[in-house]
């Protein structure tokens, strides 16, 4: 492809180079792909987490048990790069967790329970998780406001 030369007033010619322009476009494309915000896993379930001053974060790839204020139970997990959420009952929680933990490389379970639930409900979920095969249990909290 032949580029037309632009003549300047002083007689020198100017050539428009496309290579740096293409490089800049690709860099902008990469920047926007990296800076894209992804869907929040917790966006569909409304729970009010207790607050903690500890700022340590754990992996999102773990299996998460969510208990709402009205004692609805959900299991959130990642399979083949996609996040799945299933609703279950307290009675079926151990069976569902056992199935997910058998397929999981890490045997970690994160418990996200509404702060208004009584202590016994959270302990029941911890017990069920351990009986299902969880090696590590983490309690999800929100950071202080």
TrEMBL record:
Membrane topology category: Single-pass membrane protein; Single-pass type II membrane protein
TM annotation in the entry: 21-38
GO molecular function: transmembrane transporter activity
Protein's cellular compartments: Cell membrane
Any GO BP annotation: protein transport
Family to which this protein belongs: Belongs to the ExbD/TolR family.
InterPro entries: ExbD
UniProt keyword annotation of Nucleus present: no
GO cellular component: plasma membrane
UniProtKB keywords: Cell membrane, Membrane, Protein transport, Transmembrane, Transmembrane helix, Transport
Protein name according to UniProt: Biopolymer transport protein ExbD
């Amino acid at each position: 492809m032949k580029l037309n030369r632009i003549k300047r007033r002083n007689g020198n010619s100017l050539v428009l180079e496309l290579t740096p322009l293409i490089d800049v476009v690709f860099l902008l494309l990469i920047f926007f792909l990296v800076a894209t915000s992804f869907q929040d896993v917790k966006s569909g379930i409304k729970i009010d987490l207790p607050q903690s001053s500890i700022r340590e974060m754990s992996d999102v790839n773990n299996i998460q048990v969510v208990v709402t204020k009205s004692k609805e139970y959900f299991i959130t997990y990642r399979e083949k790069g996609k996040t799945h959420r299933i609703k279950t009952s307290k009675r079926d929680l151990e069976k569902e967790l056992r199935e997910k933990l058998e397929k999981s490389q890490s045997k970690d379970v994160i418990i996200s329970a509404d702060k208004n639930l009584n202590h016994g409900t959270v302990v029941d979920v911890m017990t069920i998780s351990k009986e299902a095969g969880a090696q590590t249990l983490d309690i999800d909290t929100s950071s202080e406001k």
